[in-house]
Design brief:
Length: about 130
């Protein structure tokens, strides 16, 4: 191997000098929303188990989920579902070999974010 001086340069971009790109942010958000959907599913299972356990315990869990914090968590989970769904469609589009150039990928990323917000608002209005 050639004599390369590797001591004077970093091996990878450092977080303080690396500018986050939209495609990176949308990829990270896809993972976060996936975990968020699991948490929301566990809360719904907890609510169902409380309903099967008894009226006192159900009243406690139901009160928690109907509080402002519970409603905020459920609103977030609606957004998680829509974002994850649209990001999955975007990923399928990428898997077909289309939309991989940077301008198209950024437009699709903005579309996923905007679309998930609009679909969340529509879901809240309808429900």
């Amino acid at each position: 191997m050639a004599d390369v001086n590797r001591g004077n340069r970093p091996l990878s971009p450092h977080l303080q000098i690396y500018r986050p790109q939209l495609t990176m942010v949308t990829s990270i958000l896809t993972r976060i929303t996936g975990v968020g959907m699991i948490v929301a599913a566990l809360l719904i299972v907890w609510w169902l188990l409380a309903a099967a356990t008894g009226p006192e315990y159900f009243a406690l869990v139901d009160g928690l989920l109907r509080s402002w914090l519970g409603k905020l968590v459920m609103l977030g989970s609606i957004w998680f579902v829509w974002y994850h769904f649209l990001a999955g469609l975007r990923h399928l589009w990428f898997d077909s070999g289309r939309g991989l150039d940077i301008p198209t990928a950024e437009k699709l990323g903005k579309g996923v974010i905007a679309g998930s917000v609009v679909l969340t608002l529509l879901t809240v209005i309808i429900l």
